[in-house]
Amino acid sequence: MSQPPLAHRLGSLIDSERAVPDLRRYFGTDGPDPVPPFTGSRFEQLDGGGDRPEVADTVTAQDLIAVQTLSVRVPARVALDLLEGDLGHRLSALLARIPADVDLAEAATADLAEGSPAHTAWQLLCERPGIGWVTAGKLLARKRPRLLPVYDQVVRCLLGRPESFWLGLHAALRADDRALHRALTDLGRSAGLPATVSALRVCDVVLWMRHRTDHQRGACPGS
Hints:
The protein has helices at residues 5-14, 19-27, 61-68, 76-84, 86-95, 117-126, 133-143, 153-158, 165-190, 199-217. By secondary structure, the protein is an all-alpha fold. The relative contact order is 0.18. It contains ten helices and no strands. It is globular and about 50 Å long.
């Protein structure tokens, strides 16, 4: 069976001499006197993580701070609604139906497809003023880091703007007996990253570090 197009593209991008040094630089694991890591290196680990059992189905103030480490911000009114209002209750009910202990490579398509609790939660957030697809995705990635990826304009541009990133990445990670998932896990180990950094996050950071400078300079077609 032929490899999904996104799997081939991702495989060529992560199989690079830059991948491990970029991960070490981003997470600050590159030696005894490392360059200060990017603020996003705290996204997963801040306050023990957004998916720890006691808060896995509830958006907390720490989750809202965590997404700021990835250069997005939840507007104050929406933040209050998530913490104290109906939006928070509705999102919690959806999160309770999204598995917290399943990697994307092991998930069923039904866990991600339109109409699934994850997709419905993403839509619910996107409907709120000041919450676009990037911020919605990052907040859900904080709550379900093994299942739902961080995804922004830089990575979308590098990958050629796939129509459905969740489903495309799901197929790519499952192809060839989950070869890409294993490769990403190995990259994380080689870079000395803690186990709390998922294969999805390794993928995101490798891609983002690869393309961010060109994207910001406007030196790419999608910028």
